[in-house]
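User: My collaborator and I are trying to settle a disagreement about how two of our proteins should look. Neither of us wants to argue from intuition anymore, so we agreed to look at predicted structures for both before our next call. Could you fold the first one, then the second, and keep them clearly separated?

Assistant: That sounds like a sensible way to settle it. I'll keep them separate. The first protein:
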Amino acid sequence: MKLGRLNHIGVATPSIEESVRYYRDVMGATSFHKPFDLEAQGVKVCFVDTPGENGTNGTQIELIEPLGEGSPIAKFLEKNPAGGQHHLCYEVEDIEDARSWFEGLGKRILGPTRLGAHGTPIFFLHPKDMMGQLTEIMETAKNGH
């Protein structure tokens, strides 16, 4: 199994609208995707693009807002009302190979493999097995997202 690039950093927020203003007005971001609901995961999502080297796309910021009280992000925001870093997402070429790799290492996988916000298969690894960081593993998107 070979780890790919850091695709995005998930940032929980009580308000995507306010976070977009922050990234635009304070951080100077200029490229934002249209927010959308990802009901299967109980979140509203908005990606902020950061520039990479030589005109390529850099690592994205994934703003995640809860969709209702049952959202896992709602629980995170109860403990962190202002929001904050929620997870890191790394790309892999083959999600099933990666899942088998991590399982073979004894890492706890949280739930089944499912479609993520980029429309590609993902799974999450338990923070206690990943140096305290909730980690998302995402199959590399075929269209370059």
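The second protein, kept apart from the first:
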Amino acid sequence: MSDFPGERRAFSRAKIDLPVEIHQGGSVWKQRLIDISVAGVSTDQPDVWDAQYNEPFTLVIDAGRYGILELHAYLQHVEAGRLGFAVQHGDGNNVEPLRSLLSEHIPDPLALEADIEKLNKQ
């Protein structure tokens, strides 16, 4: 399920290489998406990373035909050249476009629906 030993994932992840901008305050880092789920995002780590770890981030992902996903997230970990974010779905505007994007990359549609149901119960 994961390329990192000891890592447990509660949600199915899809490896998708897309551009992502990480915004915090007046700072913007242009990165690449490593993987994504309904509840989390992993990106590569910028060469210069001077973010405030306890402050929220906005991740802007160009999802092609699904449009631009704007996800609000908190940094959960920095390791092995990647950043791991927990996504906060405050208004739910991105859930449907995210579902559409993930449905092309997660082979088991029942797993994706179960993930969305888990997310709704949190």
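Some points you might bring to the call about the second protein. Strands lie at 14-15, 19-24, 27-36, 40-44, 57-62, 68-79, 82-88. Confidence is low (pLDDT under 50) at residues 1-7.
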